[in-house]
């Protein structure tokens, strides 16, 4: 683990982006708004209901402006130094990677395959990684494509590590032509790897067109007579890195899961899938950190896990430390995005207060925090306090909170006590994994209430991060350049979004864009001054 010495350079630093001009401008507008409200109040008795309605509307706007000003007040983000982690941390912690997918038509398997390959090839000890794909579509085609991808991974992962490839999603990597002389070792490897990738794409394409290919294969029996909303739990260990030592030729564990679905049961969409992923990974690898990547997003930076570890391990002796590390969401095939504006002002602003909100994809969580731990439950050295040990690990409270699986309860105890996980065989946990995938497993437990991803909100992301922050944890926003993760947007979605968002994005950009910010402040101030002057010239 990390050596603690204050004389060593930090693994990460919080960088503030205070702008005194922006603060002055925000305060001026706030001042003008309040004087306007004061004017309304002072002349309230001499005026009619229209005056009152105007006052209420302006009050709402002023409150929104005040909140926005507070959030934007001290923007920050975290800069990491992944090179330093190698000298300092000799035994990096394990990470379980979750990729949820739901629909083989809207999320074509080749996209999911690329997301998964980019993650399997990440620059991190292979024996410390495990990748779990949850398929809410219960699609044999997705399972077939992932199985084929795992075969290609045995060529792709060593290739990426040997030549230090940065973008490890093959479809992006092979967009660039070979930039070296023919006949060299690299060029031979490159061409062979490209041929294998093209073979993989063809296999997936042929399987997409033909619906009978899986009939004769026993491995696909679990998918016979299933519907996406009516089937039993399926757990398949696609690849197990048995006896892995972290060598560059190894491929991390790779597991396919699809939880039970029945027509009359609520399944809670992505949040439900995430909680099932947490349980299955708890039973199989129980890593202390979890990374969540949507199936149409790939790792654009091979060092993304080491960067996140810089944040988690920097303050590992500080109990009031980071619960999650969020990377920005960006897409490579869309130029205008409301998200960019939202992230650069609001998320960075929040990052300067208690930490950014959880945005969904591209986020690392600590398992213990998702199991409901609060900062006061943790001692300075990271172990559980004696009070927390008594309360949280009480024999009757664990099954009540986490459900009736004995194996699950055992894995929760180990995770809360940060016991190192003795390597065990993944396939031995298949039965337990199927049990925790039952529709009614979560019935009368705390899953979705105080444990895991929370249910019953417009977006599980916001609700979950509010809960984590309200317990007293902080979070970090790491925004490297080029971005760590990139999502894709199918052309039609991207066009529809553009139509829908063009006006909003345009106007937000005018307000927030760096170049036009001073101008927009000037215009807003002029309008407010003109408005207040007009009002005071015509007092009634
Ligand atoms: O029943 C479901 C529905 C969705 N998903 C998966 O969840 C992810 C996100 O769902 P999607 O419908 O693609 O939502 P988006 O609007 O594209 O994603 C935004 O909204 C999500 C949910 O609020 C966030 O997690 C994402 O990071 C954010 O980009 C995808 O990988 C889906 O396959 C499931 O696994 N099961
Ligand atoms: Mn999506």
Q: Which helices and strands, and how do they pair?
A:
Blueprint (H helix, E strand, L loop, with lengths): L11 E5 L3 H23 L6 H24 L3 E5 L1 H7 L6 E7 L7 H12 L8 E7 L4 H23 L7 H4 L11 H25 L24 E6 L13 E6 L10 H16 L4 E4 L4 E3 L4 H11 L7 E5 L11 H14 L11 E4 H4 L15 H7 L4 H6 L3 H11 L13 H6 L24 H11 L3 E4 L7 E3 L3 H22 L1 H24 L3
Parallel strand pairs: 3-4, 3-7, 4-6, 9-11
Antiparallel strand pairs: 1-2, 5-6, 7-10, 8-12, 9-10
Helix pairs in contact: 1-2, 1-18, 2-10, 4-5, 5-7, 17-18
The structure holds uridine-5'-diphosphate-glucose (UPG) and manganese (II) ion (MN).
* Stretches with pLDDT under 50, minimum 5 residues: 500-507
Q: If you compute it from the alpha carbons, what radius of gyration comes out, rounded to the nearest whole angstrom?
A: 26 Å
Ligand roster: uridine-5'-diphosphate-glucose, manganese (II) ion
**CATH architecture grouping of the largest domain:** Alpha-Beta Complex
